[in-house]
Write a structure and sequence with these properties.
single chain; four-stranded antiparallel beta sheet; 2 helices; 20 strands
Length: 295
């Protein structure tokens, strides 16, 4: 006998041809009916109804109180995962560990942040009695955590940003959604209300740091607004994130000749020293004027 499968009804019949030691034979065959235990789902990982499941480890586990019908894992759709109502593919075939009673599998794309997931295991894993008893499929659902901002530089509403350090850096407490981050419009920068191009963003998963640089740098004395699309943190994110900052206004702090000085006439270079970097695009003749007293 290869073994009794879970969730089955068995009938054992003793033929009337069987005799005892004295040669006596039963008038009729005798039959016993028994059932094997239907596996019950006792634990899951992530836990059922969890709202803070981490995406660092995308393995999903289902623990049963007894062995399942492993042959049913070969049936199409025996194990299904859906994200936001859309089915996702499995990375590998599910594996059942008989020693621990644990079924393990994971989505091919891993778990993505800020998302609703539902796992469905076919009732066939519990044997035919699972279906006839009305138990049906094994199901549970969970949500992955929405990454939160830990820090941002420049800080929101900072009005002293230097144009010499144009890198915008955001740090999060969990991974961002890679596919959403790669879509057009995930990151946007506006200078005085006009969209400014950005260089490709750099995302460090290990540190949760997202860095981006304006393609044309920053301009002095300019108000900026940076936007991060909501999808980058997952469908469960309430809204996108917005930060505003402005660069320093360059002010003249020294001149040569100094103000009020008396100098020799003739050809000479006039110099102005500013408190911070100036917008080189505005270093035009029309923005400088030299007037002669009495003329």
């Amino acid at each position: 006998l290869a073994g009794l499968a879970p969730g089955f009804e068995y009938a054992l019949e003793v033929s009337s041809a069987i005799t005892d030691l004295a040669g006596n034979r039963a008038e009729d065959a005798e039959t016993w009916i028994f059932r094997t235990r239907v596996p019950q789902l006792v634990a899951t990982s992530p836990a059922d109804s969890s709202t803070l499941a981490l995406v660092d480890d995308s393995r999903i586990e289902a623990s049963f109180d007894t062995a399942i019908l492993s042959a049913a894992l070969q049936v199409s759709g025996a194990v299904e995962i859906s994200r936001e109502g859309q089915r996702v593919e499995l990375r590998d075939a599910p594996i059942f560990d008989e020693a621990t009673g644990t079924l393990r599998f994971e989505p091919a794309e891993g778990l993505r942040p800020g998302s609703r997931y539902q796992v469905t295991l076919s009732g066939l894993l519990g044997g035919p009695l699972r279906a006839t008893s009305g138990g049906g499929a094994y199901r549970w659902q969970f949500e992955t955590a929405v990454p939160q901002v830990l820090s941002v530089s420049p800080a929101d509403l900072d009005s002293t940003v230097s144009v010499q350090d144009p890198t915008f850096v955001m740090r999060f407490d969990g991974p961002l959604d890679g596919p959403a981050l790669a879509t057009a419009g995930a990151l946007r920068l506006f200078a005085e209300g006009i969209e400014a191009p950005l260089s490709p963003a750099v995302y460090d998963v290990a540190t949760g740091t997202l860095s981006v640089v304006p393609a044309n740098g920053l301009r002095a004395g300019t108000a900026y607004r940076f936007q991060l699309a909501a999808d980058v943190r997952g469908p469960l994110a309430d809204a996108g994130l917005v930060w505003a900052f402005s660069t320093q206004v360059a002010r003249a702090v020294a001149t040569d000749p100094a103000d009020g000085a008396t100098v020799m006439a003739g050809t000479r270079r006039l110099q102005v020293e500013f408190s911070s970097a100036v917008d080189v695009d505005q270093l035009l003749p029309r923005n400088f004027r030299l007037s002669q007293a009495g003329s």
